[in-house]
Amino acid sequence: MSASPPDYFPAAAAALELPKVLKHVAAAALSSAGAEAILHLQPLPDLPSVRARLAEVTEMRSLLECDDTFPISSLPDLSATLQHLRIQGRTLEIQQLIDLARFSATARRVRHYLLARREKYPELSRAALSLTSLQEHERALENALNFTEGTVKDSASPVLARVRREISRALSEVRDRLERIARKLAAQDMLREQMITLRDGRLVLMLKEEHRRHVPGLVHDHSASGRTVFIEPMESVEINNRVRELYSAERDEVERILQMLTERLRQVLPALLANHEGMIAIDVIHAKGQAARQLVASAPQMVGETRLKLINACHPLLLLKNEDRRKVVPLDLELGYPAGAGLPVRTLLISGPNAGGKTVALKTVGLLALLARCGLHIPASPDSTMPMFENVFVDIGDRQSIEDDLSTFTSHVKHLVEILRHAGSGDLVLIDEIGAGTDPEAGAALSVAVLRELNRRGCLTIVTTHHGALKTFAQEEPGVSNGSMAFDRETLTPTYQFRAGLPGASYAFEIAERMGMAAPVIAAARSLVGVEKVNVEELLNELQNKLAQQQQLNEKLQMEETRLRSLQKLYEEREQSLRAQVQEIKKKAHAEAEALLQNANAIIENAVREIRETNAAREAIKAGRENLAALRERLARENQVEEPPPPATDETEIAKFEIGMPVKWLKQGALATVLELPDSSGKVLVAAGALRARVPVSDLRAVRAGRKTEPAALPKASVQEAARHAEIDLRGMRVEEALAMVDKFLDDALLAGWNEVRLIHGKGTGALRQSIANHLKTLPHVKSSRLGQFGEGDIGVTVVELA
Asked: How many whole angstroms from its chain centre is CA 15?
């Protein structure tokens, strides 16, 4: 690492507006000392320290979002109190003692809270280990002081309790005397008001000025008008003196108690100082955690090597300015990684139009680097990677100085000289508008030389520029890369999206045209620039448009990939579920087979025993055979598996069917009549009783000649089974008959689990179609209905969606 100037951090922090972010974080602190510590945060010295501070904030954010309420709501400022406690013989005031008691109680609760969760929050628990429980001293203060009223309790000492009782009695006595005197004087109209008031700590009466000489006593004050005299009658002077003496004794005893409590705390001053320092540190972590929650910030992956990767990074001040986070365009940027098989890209040139976000991108990288180095979360994805930069050098903004007689270019060169003097491997260098303010060719040449030197040293360097020569340099120089801020050419507005690998066009002519500059002037400017320059700008524009199209395509591909992964996951879950069901069925079948086998063995044994007992009588043998035959029949019936009929898909099989011929509907075990020849999907329209349905050719067999051709009645479940084919043919039926069939068909379709069925009513006059449509609107289990589309039967079919 190179030697760094002692003031590099303040300069970089000021240029990148770090104090503004720290001010926001400090606002969340609960103590003035904590806020002050945040405002003066300095970069941490090494990588382990940075990681530990970031982990503390991560744990604090998790605690605030997912755990019980953290027992810290306020922290009094104890700086002056602890300083007074260091001075031997100095007594603390009541409020100072109360603040110390409350602070100690908070520290004790925080310590207990964190140590009880040390497995969840190891870093915070380490911070809590510096805290010491001073509960005995807290109780001593609570017993002696009234925290609400800010006074010493009567129970603080027997002497104080006795003195206050005597004060109460003396005050009552003097008040009684003055009330008697007041009644007499009021009867003589000598009082301004018949009330007892207090002057100089003594009870007095409000006497009219003209009667001053008629009442012997001590005058303590006059009213502003001079018409009222506050007088203490001689009759109450002695008792008032007694009250004053008691008040003095009370003050002495209170002072003694406060001194005793102060000395008690002075004995544990080191623990109080450690608690104060530890709680301020926890207050700082707490404020960092609150700020991380507000900014939706995360801890980056801190690494030792110089590799920078920011994912969905945002400038904190932009987030604070915009309540809607979606208005802030995030930044994705990589630096320090190899480009293909080449050298690591350590230098990035960002180009593009003015006000397009180049400087914001530059500041975002630098500010987030400083925040992470100070142990603060950054508003970026937790997958972001941040190097442990030794130094951050910044040259941003107009450096023109009238006082120092420096032009903009001269000031920039001065900063470049400083950067070249100190920057080295592991440093971050940020330069805004490099080479600006002088002859473009000379400025570009000087910029190339500076960037080559920084790249050779191993610095991570990001610069913004408008120089075309620098864009070419970045394209050809190893370890240097172009980047740009996207610009919508149609609307001529910036999108603030960073694009790696592509230089950006300036859009100077387009912006000038939009601002209202005359077309001839723009045309003349284009001709002065030259055809080659215009062609390069056009090429950059075309590249950016193609990149935008490519990004849209990538987004679609990512969405499709996500969908396919979801389907794959669903398939795997269903496959696993089916396997579990198969295993359960096999287990159940095995159990049933065992039961049947045991039953068969019992029957055989009974038959053998009966044969033996009857000496093989013919009737017994016959009965045994009958029992075994019945068992065989039962086993055959229970184990019977319906084998599907062989498929009939060849042309010869399909050609066997003719309109009007009788067929056997294998699946229903019923006779039916062919109404229509097989369609393109290999289904035949048949009629079985009142039911019409389209049946696969493979499920039909021609009836042999001579067999009865009247269609047999369908079994009880036939309509329900037909519903599984999702359609019913109602053509040729009367409206009442068709509606009855529709009701039955839809009921069976619901039982069969169909979500969508088809009602074939034909086109005709449309009367049947309209009647069915009206009827469907009255059925609660019909979600919707529509006429068939092209290829579905058009208006001759109604498609019904079931609820």
From this structure: 31
SS3 483: strand
Other CB atoms closer than 10 Å to residue 507's CB: what's the count? Answer: 22
pLDDT digits (tens, 9 = 90+) for 359-394: 899 999 999 999 999 999 999 999 999 999 989 999
H/E stretch holding 799 reads: strand 797-802
* Interatomic CA distance for residues 417 and 399, integer angstroms: 14
Measure the CA dihedral 548/553/556/562, to 10°.
-110
The helices-and-strands tally (H runs, E runs) of the chain is: 24, 25
Contact 382/302 with Cβ under 8 angstroms?
no
For residues 193-215, average pLDDT: 77
- The total of other beta-carbon atoms located within 10 Å of residue 397's CB is 13
Measured between alpha carbons, how far is 409 from 404 in angstroms, rounded to an integer?
Answer: 13
The answer to whether 702 and 663 are in contact (CB under 8 A) is yes
DSSP annotation of 344 reads B
To the nearest 10°, the Cα dihedral for 537, 539, 542, 548?
A: -80
Report d(CA 695, CA 646) in Å as an integer. Answer: 15
Contacts of 121 by beta carbon, 8 Å cutoff, 6+ apart: 59, 60, 62, 63, 114
Taking the C-alpha atoms of residue 699 and residue 721, their distance in angstroms, rounded to an integer, is 13
Contact 45, 57 (CB under 8 A): no
Encoded amino acid at 126, one letter: R
Say if residues 182 and 201 touch (Cβ distance below 8 Å).
Answer: no
- For residue 301, the cross-strand partners are 385
Q: Which residues pair with 394 in a beta bridge?
A: 430
Kindly give, in sequence order, each residue whose CB lies less than 8 Å from that of residue 72, ignoring residues fewer than 6 positions away: 30, 106, 109, 110, 282, 283, 286
Q: Report the predicted TM-score, pTM, of the whole model to 2 decimal places.
A: 0.62
Task: Write the single-letter amino acid at 157.
Answer: S
- The closest of 149, 52, 31 to 94, measured between CA atoms, is 149
Render 611-666 in DSSP notation, one character per residue: HHHTTS-HHHHHHHHHHHHHHHHHHHHHT---PPPPP--SHHHHHT--TT-EEEET
Q: What is the pLDDT of residues 19-55, one digit of tens each?
A: 999 999 999 999 999 999 999 999 999 999 999 999 9
Buried-exposed string 312-323: b where 16+ CB fall within 10 A, e elsewhere: bbbbbbbbeeee
